[in-house]
Design a protein that fits this description.
3 domains; 24 helices; Alkaline_phosphatase_core_sf; transmembrane
Length: about 675
């Protein structure tokens, strides 16, 4: 029967009966399960406002929600609450959200709190179920977008267009189908593996974007890791040690963030699909059918087809490139052993250049775009015209053509080794292979004759350079041995005019018992093309201290390198400076026996030369003795130091044999 108000257990009921006589029909919607017996002492203590039993233990009464709590002063029946309903909060509100909980884990909550105290909701989503649901769907949507972005992203910056992402990735359809049918534990493992793999592929795609921007090619997962050391050195030279460290930390943080976010995104979508299996199955079937239809009909929006398999194709391409790289290593090792002039005796090499002082000079990043691009052509062409006139006035003649470099945007040593060895050296593995062998180089041919002293001027080399022996150089002057006491100009350790002045002081200006063959690397036109040195009177160069004021007055690399207009302008100015330095040196210090071969090692990076630029670089031969140029008259080159657009274009690796043959070298008999 109903409990009468104001009657406690000690006053109205014997001690061997329950504290309250409860009508089961009235209480069935409030409690579940059997009620525990409350001792008479506990009931009396409750009436007096005490919270503990005489034994010190909490009363056997379940905590109630704030809505069901009764102030302590009011006398209430000592009714024990049953256990909380699974999927509900203490207030009785259902918070089981299909977007924010996993069906594989229990959604039930334990007791709401200590007796007689209001219990706060245990989770934010319990207090704000609508907002939690909206946030859940937003996170799910962003996760899905992130996955699709990773599956569809291109590997070069110009291809980032809206149409690229308005496609259906087949990898997403197949992945969804697999995750829907898997049991919980395998599903979680597969989702984590898939997310991590997609994160790795995203990082590799980002590397492709960077390599295409700077080097005009994708990232080689076998060979290109060594370039990160050079990249760090470049950052240190251009941004300072602190900036370089910060950049490295930022890159590592980005890699970690990509891996973590991609893994969490796949897990999120996987959980949502599992909680809504029927809807997810229907959606996957519809999208899969759409993909098959679009693929069969070849449907496309603007360019790429709607049915995409970008990631699958990219993985296949990477695997093929790895296999090709490994095969190329063995094939190139055999190729490097073959040399038409490898066995030619010294007295049969370069017989038509005996007695000449030969200079082979590389101008950093001097590419075809410097002469033909509208942003740089006017200034560079004017400089070439003026310097050609100066050469003519000094009694020199010149012929010029084009060579296709083995590299683009960087890795200058690949261009140098290709030109000098006569082998196509377009990656680091080939470079290591050839420099570890005994293939004859153009500089090595001069040394083999015994008729020349051979030296190298390498201001860009800042540590030991064992390759000097491979190139056949008697002595190498690196940045530490040229005596420079002035400031660095960004990456370049010293201005080109100083390097040439040091060459004159250390080698060319000295008396010798034999002519000189020199390989000179000019670095002032190296990116980021700021600050740029200025020409000064040769007698003021000294130890380079004079350049302190010039460097400080120059432009900041950050203000130039990231400005698409300024970077082209400054690149053109740097080429002008290098050409001025080289030709002025020849006019001032050259003689009737001087022969100059100068060329660019590669085109500048894509932000300057353009994403579809060729790999062509200018090459010129300058000589005071006209008979030297008569030897190459059948080459079809343009007169002067500016090659015409229609001048012949040869692969850079073909130059060595053409040059050796033109100047009296005899191929070895087989």
């Amino acid at each position: 029967m109903p409990v009468e108000e104001g009657i406690t257990a000690s006053e109205g009921e014997p001690e061997d009966k329950p504290a309250v006589d409860i009508d089961t029909d009235a209480a069935s919607d409030k409690v579940s399960g059997a009620e525990e017996e409350a001792p008479a002492e506990a009931a009396s203590a409750r009436k007096e406002g005490e919270k503990k039993t005489p034994s010190g233990e909490a009363p056997a009464v379940e905590a109630s929600t704030p809505a069901e709590e009764t102030p302590a002063e009011e006398e209430t029946p000592a009714v024990a609450k049953g256990p909380a309903v699974e999927g509900s909060t203490a207030s009785g509100e259902d918070t089981s959200d299909p977007d924010t909980s996993d069906p594989d884990t229990s959604a039930g909550d334990g007791p709401a709190g200590p007796p007689d105290e209001p219990a706060a909701p245990s989770k934010w989503r319990d207090r704000h179920p609508v907002a939690a649901r909206n946030v859940g769907w937003t996170v799910t949507g962003l996760s899905l977008l992130l996955i699709c972005f990773a599956l569809l992203m291109p590997t070069s910056a110009p291809k980032f267009t809206p149409g690229v992402f308005l496609r259906i990735p087949v990898e997403a359809v197949l992945g969804a189908a697999v995750l829907i049918v898997l049991p919980r534990r395998p599903r979680i493992a597969v989702a984590i593996l898939a997310g991590a793999s997609l994160g790795v592929l995203t990082v590799l795609n980002l590397l492709d974007v960077g390599f295409n921007m700077f080097l005009g090619r994708g990232f080689n997962v076998v060979l290109d890791w060594v370039l990160f050391d050079d990249a760090q050195s470049y950052l240190k030279d251009t941004m300072g040690n602190g900036g370089a460290i910060g950049a490295v930390i930022a890159v590592l943080a980005l890699v970690i963030i990509v891996l973590v976010l991609m893994t969490l995104a796949v897990l999120r979508v996987s959980n949502v699909m599992t909680r809504n299996r029927d809807a997810a199955s229907r959606a996957t079937l519809v999208v899969g059918t759409a993909w098959v239809t679009c693929a069969a009909l070849g449907l496309q929006l603007s360019g790429p087809g709607i049915a995409a398999r970008t990631t699958v194709a990219r993985v296949e391409d990477r695997v093929n490139r790895v296999q090709a790289t490994l095969k190329d290593e063995a094939a190139f090792a055999k190729e490097a052993k073959k040399d038409a002039f490898g066995g030619t005796p010294g007295d049969q090499l370069l017989t038509d250049l005996r007695g000449k002082d030969v200079m082979i000079a590389f101008i950093e990043s001097y590419g075809r775009s410097a002469i033909e691009d509208e942003a740089t052509a006017a200034g560079v062409d004017a400089t070439l015209t003026a310097k050609n006139e100066a050469l003519t006035k000094a009694g020199y003649s010149a012929k010029s053509g084009w060579l296709t470099s083995a590299t683009y945007g960087g890795s200058s040593w690949l261009g140098h080794s290709t030109f000098l060895s006569g082998l196509w050296i377009n990656n680091q593995n080939r470079y290591r292979t050839v420099t570890a062998g005994e293939h004859l180089t153009l500089t090595g041919a001069f040394k083999r004759t015994g008729a020349w002293r051979t030296v190298g001027v390498m201001p860009g080399v800042q540590k030991n350079w064992p390759e000097g022996k491979f190139y056949g150089l008697d002595n190498v002057y690196d940045s530490r041995e040229l005596g420079y006491e002035g400031p660095k100009f960004s990456w370049s350790t010293m201005p080109d005019q100083y390097a040439l002045s040091a060459f004159e002081r250390l080698e060319h200006g000295k008396k010798r018992d034999k002519p000189l063959m020199s390989e000179i690397i000019l670095t002032s036109s190296h990116q980021p093309w700021a600050p740029i040195p200025k020409m000064i009177p040769w007698d003021q160069v000294g130890d380079g201290s004079v350049y302190e004021g010039i460097e400080k007055a120059g432009k900041d690399p950050a203000d130039v390198f990231y400005d698409s207009k300024k970077v082209k302008e400054e690149y053109g100015k740097s080429i002008q400076y290098s050409v001025n330095s080289l030709i002025d040196y020849v006019v001032k210090y050259g003689s009737k026996n001087t022969v100059l071969v100068f060329l660019g090692d590669h085109q500048p990076l894509a932000s300057v030369s353009g994403s579809n630029a060729s790999r062509d670089v200018p090459v010129s031969i300058v000589a005071h003795d006209k008979s030297v140029l008569d030897k190459i008259d059948d080459w079809g080159w343009t007169d002067g130091i500016k090659p015409d657009k229609s001048a012949p274009v040869w692969r850079m690796d073909s130059f060595r044999d053409r040059f050796l043959t033109a100047y009296g070298s005899t191929p070895a008999k087989r």
